[in-house]
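#structure-requests
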Amino acid sequence: MKKIVEVKNVTKCFGKTTAVNDISLTIKKGSTVAILGPNGAGKTTTISMMLGLLEPTAGEVKLFGEDPKQLTVRNRIGAMLQEVSVIDQLKVREVIELFRSYYTHPLSTEELISVTGLHEDVLKKWANKLSGGQKRRLGFALALAGNPDLLFFDEPTVGLDITARKNFWDKVSMLKTQGKTIIFTTHYLQEADDFSERIILFNNGEIVADGKPDDIKNNISTRSVSFQSRDKHAAMTLVESFEEVIHCYEKEDRIYAVTNDTDAVLAKVFSQGLPVKHVFVEQGRLEEVFDLLTSKQKGVL
């Protein structure tokens, strides 16, 4: 398939600090890629270079085989960044019309309203008077205004409730069926697991994992023993003391023990007479992979 994004041996330095260190990657047409990493890992810097907002210190970034700053490239991309800056003294409908005018073959206003769920009462509001959720919808509409082939979403669902997040990803799934190439960052690891076909994990300015979500999880040998207990504090304290347990945490009323030896952990759980129920053994979760690959290093930007 055709390469849409090419990043070749790219480094980005801010003074003496190296934010991105000699990374290379390609992204093909029609793919949905999640770029993950802890705060300061270099992922936002990388996306900024892809968008042409930052120049690499070394290396080369190409979109559609051209420099990201070329007008022909900008006409084919859309971006929804974390902070949506709106124009004072314009109403939402006027902002959308203004952005549409920047592109050669924009989507119609009606299409943008339909896809993003902007209601008539919102369209009549002053853009700087919108709520956080309404600003996210407007940002989504502006990203789609030019009917782009390549879309960037930087933490697109921050601040949205569960229903709004589901609606957003339903729309993204629809865009994918149209052949759009989608690159997104998120701190909700389940979103990356559910909606991407490829994950690129950054840490300390470098790529530490790159592949399909299931492949990344399967390549990490750890698994989890999880259970419920009527005395969670005592159970977690004891399980944490097992030498086979790498990491122990609680999530959604269950205790998870990450380990390379599930049999040994299970044997100790039962031999110690822990009051547990609903015991499961699971392949390593994306959260655990994320922790294992990023916990030993510290990000920079």
